[in-house]
Amino acid sequence: MSLPPEKASELKQLIHQQLSKMDVHGRIREILAETIREELAPDQQQLSTEDLIKALRRRGIIDDVMKELNFVTDNVDQELPSSPKQPVCFTDRQSTLLKKTNIDPTRRYLYLQVLGGKAFLEHLQEPEPLPGQVCSTFTLCLHFRNQRFRSKPVPCACEPDFHDGFLLEVHRESLGDGTRMADSTTMLSISDPIHMVLIKTDIFGETTLVASYFLEWRSVLGSENGVTNLTVELMGVGTESKVAVGILNIKLEMYPALNQTLSQEVVNTQLALERQKTAEKERLFLVYAKQWWREYLQIRPSHSSRLVKIFAQDENGINRPVCSYVKPLRAGRLLDTPRQAARFVNVLGYERAPVIGGGGKQEQWCTLLAFLCRNKGDCEDHANLLCSLLLGYGLEAFVCVGTKAKGVPHAWVMTCGTDGTITFWESLTGHRYIHKSTNPDEPPVAEQPKPLYPYRTVGCVFNHQMFLGNCQPSDSVEVCVFDLNDESKWKPMSEEAIKSVCAPGATTSLPPFPPLCASTIDASVTSNEIEMQLRLLVSEHRKDLGLTTVWEDQLSYLLSPALASYEFERTTSISAGNEEFQDAIRRAVPDGHTFKGFPIHFVYRNARRAFATCLRSPFCEEIICCRGDQVRLAVRVRVFTYPESACAVWIMFACECAS
Fold first, then answer.
1. Do the strands 108-118 and 137-144 form a parallel or antiparallel pair, or are they unpaired?
2. How far is CA 286 from CA 179, 289, 303, 400, 465, in A?
3. By 3-state DSSP, what share of the chain in percent is helix, strand and coil, each rounded to 5?
4. Mind listing the pLDDT tens digit for each residue in 129-159?
5. Where is the CEP76 C2 domain (predicted)?
């Protein structure tokens, strides 16, 4: 293939730059001198080219160069787009696929490479997975200044084979600076860390939070050539937050290269000043919180037994003010209404923080990124996320901390309407309850409203700006008056004090809130896959019982409107479409035949696990194991997707048979 003269000179220049970057010329000179010194016989006057090539090959120079040069077949005559963002190619050595990303030459980027892991000792005995074998995997999730990334899953091992690169845009969010390329001094003032979360997914699709780490990236500003290599030690979470779980090798590089690097002393001084400022703010808030608590106990000594939670531990075992776990969060175009937001939070899985041994509940309030990446969390995680979303929709929302039946600690969300209406939102179920206070001073004959909500006591309420302790004579939710402006009923904390440690950018120790990500699940494909797996499981189960299975496809299709109606009702609390469904079923089932249907709802996509759960219901088992004349079975699956790849899975089993 012949190249035009200008392309040939451009190619030569690229090759020359690559060789200069690798210092190939210097290494060749060293090997040439060494070869002449060691291998040239006294009677020889010169080395042949073949001898030199052999020496270079033997020392791996040629292999190194060939590895670095990635040749891509492309049409060289094809015109490049005239857009200012030219596609820059990053080739992955593990894959022949060419990855392209648009880089704006007027913006500054940080290229973060994860170059493998080591010392994940929990997986020391992990066998090497066979080709095609399903195995547990590690996935690394990153968040930096409203940008989120996820690595390719790699098999769990003592030395996991992470080889991923992430291009992070470093930009100023203040007005007027958005289009300027950030220089070293500007970037030094950007205190946002890179939040890295390591997730383990087992062979059944269950996720576990392995580590949560905040990477201080600004050391690259003081490194030579704007490139630095880091060894990051990841610590465990919860009760294991002081135990190392593994090490990641990370390389940071600035694009374009910095014209002027800062001295390491300047970078270290800036970081030390930030830490000092943060520590002082946190110290002052702690002094204030202790004083507030003393005043609260002076109102009534019995207040010491109320659930007034000012601080909570995150997954790394760090105590943070509860107000820092909540912030107005906008879902963009991913969620349209507050009730849809409540449904989204409800379909995220519920799991209490794991505890080793007995002794009750282990407390762990997760940062938002850790909760979203794991796709499940405790009631506090759900309540914090729902409150943040409702605040984003412009509602006056608070997280309530108290107890439900049998004194079990619990957290839920409350919104205050402009007309004084108090609404409780249960983040684990999506249910809403209107609160009507009972007056304990009314005579017994007066009819009192019976509460439908499961909450028994409330100790405090908070959001991103306010914290209020319940100082009413009784902390029973039934008799509580939620007039938060009445200081005789609710003792407030200073909003200025809360702002000093919880406002965005107030301290460098505050984890930034990540944006929500759209679902990557194809609802139709996933629905079909689960439905086919369930058909197979039902047929096998009936075969074991000595029964044959006949599927009625038309009846299966007719179940779809019912499943859509159930999900609509869960989201809006409005029932619609049941009349049409019932009419269609009456027409489809012949005279003298009986129809039975059983709908059930899951928040996971494991067909075998769902089938085992269905069989535990006597109603469902009666349908699946139906015996009689002209038995026809039907099953319909409908997957409804939500942000963060959360989903609501509705399944309906049905049968018709001769009466």
1. unpaired
2. 40, 5, 19, 22, 17
3. 35, 25, 40
4. 777 778 899 999 999 999 999 999 999 999 9
5. 102-259
Provide the strand spans (E) within 367-408. Answer: 376-377, 397-404
Q: Using an 8 Å Cβ cutoff, are 492 and 467 in contact?
A: yes
**Distance between the two ends of the chain, CA-based, in angstroms?**
79
**With 0-12 CB in 10 A as exposed, 13-18 as middle and 19+ as buried, what is 405?**
exposed
Instruction: Find out whether 346 and 430 touch, Cβ atoms under 8 Å.
Output: yes
Alpha helical stretches, state H, 400-450: none
* Adjacent-strand bridge partners of 280: none
Three-state SS at 379? helix
Query: How far, CA to CA in Å, does 398 sit from each of 294, 308, 327, 472?
Result: 24, 14, 11, 18
Residue type, 604: Y
Confirm if 184 and 221 have CB atoms less than 8 A apart: yes
What is the per-residue pLDDT for 11?
A: 67
- Residues 599 and 560 sit within 8 Å (Cβ to Cβ): no
Q: What DSSP element (H or E) covers 285?
A: helix 264-299
* Coil vs helix vs strand at 211: strand
pTM of the shown model:
0.81
SS3 for 313-352 is ECCCCCEEEHHHHCCCCCCCCCCCCHHHHHHHHHHCEECC
**How many residues are recorded in the chain?**
659
Chain Cα centroid distance, residue 125:
29
Ranges of residues in the chain whose predicted pLDDT is under 70: 1-14, 16-22, 24-26, 29, 31-48, 52, 60-102, 172-179, 354-361, 439-449
- What would the two tokens of residue 28 be? 């060749």
234 within 8 A of 245, measured Cβ to Cβ: yes
Q: Look at the alpha carbons of 109, 113, 119, 125 in this order and tell me if their dihedral is positive or negative.
A: positive
Q: How far is CA 133 from CA 138, 169, 334, 628, in A?
A: 15, 37, 35, 42
Q: What is the token pair recorded at 207?
A: 């996720």
Residue pair 542/625 in contact by the 8 Å Cβ criterion: yes
**Chain-centroid distance, C-alpha 492:** 33
What is the three-class DSSP state of 187? helix
User: For the chain, how long is the longest CA-to-CA vector?
Assistant: 122
**In whole angstroms, how far apart are CA 142 and each of 151, 197, 507, 556?**
8, 6, 21, 42
Report CA-CA distances (Å) from 51 to 62, 137, 204.
Answer: 14, 47, 57
Q: What is the DSSP string of 103-126?
A: E-TTSEEEEEEEEEEE--GGGTTP
DSSP string computed for 575-613 = --SHHHHHHHHHHHSPTTEEEEEEEEEESS--HHHHHHH
Nearest to 413 by CA among 377, 453, 445: 453
Within 10 Å of residue 223's Cβ, how many Cβ atoms?
18
